[in-house]
Amino acid sequence: MIKPLFNWRTGLSIIAIAIVSGTIIYSQLLAKKIASEERQKVEQWVEAVKLATQDTSGISDRLIGYIIESNKTIPIIETNESNRILQYVNLDSTKIAEDSNYVIRQLQEFKSENDSPITWIDPGDSSRINHYYYGHTSLLNQVRYYPLVQLLIVALFIIITITALTTNFRSVQNQVWAGMAKETAHQLGTPLSSLQGWVEMMKETPGNDKIVGEMEKDVDRLKLVSDRFGKIGSTPQLEKHDVIHQVETMMEYIRKRAPGRVQFSMHTGEKGSLMVPISPPLFDWVIENLLKNALDAMDGKGAIAITFYDTEKQVVIDVADSGKGISRQNVGKVFKPGFTTKKRGWGLGLSLSKRIIDQYHKGQLFVKQSEPGKGTIFRIVLNK
Prior knowledge:
This protein folds into 3 domains: 129 residues; 76 residues; 149 residues, Heat Shock Protein 90 (2-Layer Sandwich), CATH 3.30.565.10. The chain is built from 10 helices and 11 strands.
């Protein structure tokens, strides 16, 4: 089934991007307008200050005073032609008293904010030039930085939403997996009980010893599978068991069913046993899945080696094969449900194995190393 290119999620994303983009553009236009008005006010203030010193008639004193006093928000620093500070307005008086270099630093900041200061040339003496540097008001800064704050809030909201949806999806997915597993175990229970009864009846008939023996093995195998599925979705009871013995038993089981040209080896580092808290049925399932996966990757010939590493707090188990390896783009996908490179397969073995080790045993299962044409190493880390 081909998924449509446009859905409601795409539509909402486009709308959100359009809203944020529109807000940013409008805010920048508004900021430019405010900056232009601020410069005009500073120019008026400069003219009013100079007129107050030159006009001795007193006719315009009221208007000049009004213009000068109306500037209560724009900070201004006046310098002469030699860059010496003459006066300043609307600077923080507390910081001026505490820091003698505060005004100088403000001057440098104003110069960086406004490349072209407002210049006044004395009509009577052209060599006398004063420069007026000014800073931006808090209103202009708020308008400029508001879109960034809004963008951060939107991004945070999107991250929280995606995380919540992903967590909810995984929770539902886990419930489905657990429900299917338990239902499978339940459905296997009835025919298993019946098969056990038939095996007991066949034991009483002479000449069926060989058949009954093989049937018992198959019934025990079905019981093991049912037990494994029954434990999925519930927290298993972990007890200390010898993982070397567990792995060795499962390796022998797989060896008997593997092609004769596949060589098996196990390296324990001279350790006779390693006791680790595990759930034997589930742990055996992991080893079985990894060994079967290794066999599938070797096409009937090669080598499988299992190596144990004993540390102070952990036991590390490496399962290495000489198979065809995993491409770099697929290494991150091997544990995803449904992913498989085999013609036949559901792509669930490695996914279930990782769930068993990571969630139930609080350990780690990951691809330690893989190279196409040379093989793969899966690593299991178990806490003691």
